[in-house]
Amino acid sequence: MKAEVLVSREGIPLAAVSAPASVGETKLVEPVLHQWNDTSSGCPTLWPAIIIGDKAYDSDALRAVTASVGIHLLAPHRRNRTPEHCTNDGRRMRRYRNRWRVERTFAHAGNYRRFTTRYERLRVTANAVVNAVFMLLTLAHL
Question: Can you give the CATH number for the domain in which 10 is found?
Answer without folding.
Answer: 3.30.420
